[in-house]
Each structure stands twice: as structure tokens, then as C-alpha cells.
Amino acid sequence: MEDELNVTYITLTGHVEVQKYRYVYFLIMFTVYILIICCNFTIVCLIWIHRNLHEPMYIFIAALLINSVLFSTNIYPKLLIDFLSEKQIISYSACLFQFFLFYSLGSSEFLLLSAMAYDRYVSICKPLQYPTIMRKTTVSIFLGLAWLVPACHISVLVIMSADMKLCNLTLNGIFCNNSIYNLHCVSSRTRSIFGVFAVIVTALFPLLFILFTYTRILIISYRSCKTVRKKAAQTCLPHLLVLISFSCLCAYDVIIVRLGSKFPKTARLIMTLQVIMYHPLFNPIIYGLKMKEISKHLKRLFSQTKVM
Predict the structure, then answer these.
(1) How far apart are CA 245 and CA 255, in angstroms?
(2) Over 90: is that where the pLDDT of 72 sits?
(3) Which member of 158, 159, 254, 269 has the greatest number of CB atoms within 10 A?
């Protein structure tokens, strides 16, 4: 009982007329969450089942889609509970955990996209060395680092925030993101510096590496034969579309936090929903339609379903 009294609860004030439209919100978000799980795991299962998809590029795609499901699972269950609750609250410890997963998994996406960009670079620009460079060990190391490096960086920020005194128990949002810094009585210079360092390591460097890699691929493809150019377009275009989509997601998150109360509440909610809704659905649609081998297996799957 004493432990319950010592728990600090944060009120989430980002919802708009949740009491009036709670069931509409719940139905829409529940449907989207089920679609995210089904679409992403359908492609993951296809990659798992078919041996011709057991290549580094498809393994990275499967990891990216699993990451999207984990990212959504961090947000949606709590959001659905809030829609049906009288009060939209979360304990400070749970809020920090949600913050940790949100930015850790988000940063992992940048690193996974970097690994995919490197894989495409080696495949197109150094095809003879590809089997030697992109071995199972290399792929495993890339996957491990993609999840471990962001987790270590974000965990430091969470530990720094855990013991800071709170002067505000109202969070202007529907889940815990960078807005939690507004809850603290004083801002920490050390945390701010480390936060900038974490962004540079887990987002800026990977983004620059991706842009550099695809620029090199475009230059080499342009100088090569038509077959190489076609291969580059088929395999690189989906990755670039996902990168653009995810960069928009990150830009939305920064804009939402920076503008704060200056932004109309309804517009803020719509922008926040953009962050968590369209990107996890966008990934499987892009890879399902644009990746030739995955698209082929999807068509077979749907044709078998129709026959049955």
C-alpha cells in the first residue's frame, strides 16, 4: 500500500474530446494496430519460410518490420487503454520506459537502414566480394549493434531523468516522448549535451552514411550497363522511400515537441497520430509491392487463399 502511495502519476492531456469519441478512437486505432501486426508479420513469415529469401537484404527487411511492430506495441496497447479510461494517466517509471523504447527502437531503424544501404552498396558496387563481406557473422553483428547501440545511449538519458525532481505532472501529449523534459523543475546541461551526442551517433551519422552510400551507388550505376541500373533501381528505391518516410516521422516528433503549447491541440493530435500510424503500415506495403521476390511470394499466397 505504501509503495502505491509513492508512485508518481503523469496526466496525459494530448487527447481531444476523448470522452465523446472514445469508441471511435478505439475502433480506428485497434484496426490500425491489427493491420500493422498482420501486414508486417506476413512478410516476416514469407522471408522465414522461403529459402530463396534467406539473404542479407531480406533478413534486414525482416528485422526492420519486426522493429516496426515492437515500436507500435510500445504505443498502441497503452493508447487503447487510455481511450476506454476515465483518466488518461501513466506512472512516471512507465513513462520513462515508454520513452526509452520509443527512441531506442526509432534509432534502431536508422541503423538498420544504414546496414541495408551498406548491403546494397556491396551488392551493386562490389558484387564479386559480396559473399565474402556479407557473411552470416557480419549480418548478425550489424543486427546486434542496430539494437544494442541505441539502447545503451537512451538508457543513459533515462537513468539521468529518473532521479530528477518533477515540478509538473501534466504531459502535453498522448504518449511519452521528449516532452517529459518539460516535467522537470530544472533542465540538466549534462543530459542535454549527452542527448545531442546520442542524436549524432544514432541518427545523424547513419543518415549521412545512407546518403553517401546511395550517392555512390547512383554514380556507379549511372556509369554501368542497363542491367546494373535496373538492379539498383529495383532494390534501392524501396529503401529510399522508407528512409524518407521515417525522416518525416522524426521531423514530426521534433516539431511537435518544440512547438509545444503554441500548436493547436487538434493539429498536435493529428501530427502525433501521423508519427505512430502511417510509417509502420508504410514499410510492409512498400517492401511487399516494390521488392520483386517478396511481391512474387505475396501473389502466390493470395492466389492460394482465393483457391481455398
Answers:
(1) 15
(2) yes
(3) 269
